Amino acid sequence: MNGEEKTYVDQVFGEMKYKHRWEKKGTVTLFGMTWDIVIAAKAYRGKEITESQRDSYKRYKDAEGTLLEKAEEALTEYVRNTEHEAESREALKNHLHPKTLLFKQNGDIILLLDCAWEPDQGLAVSLYPEILVAIQDMFL
Question: Is the pLDDT of residue 61 over 60?
Answer without folding.
Answer: yes
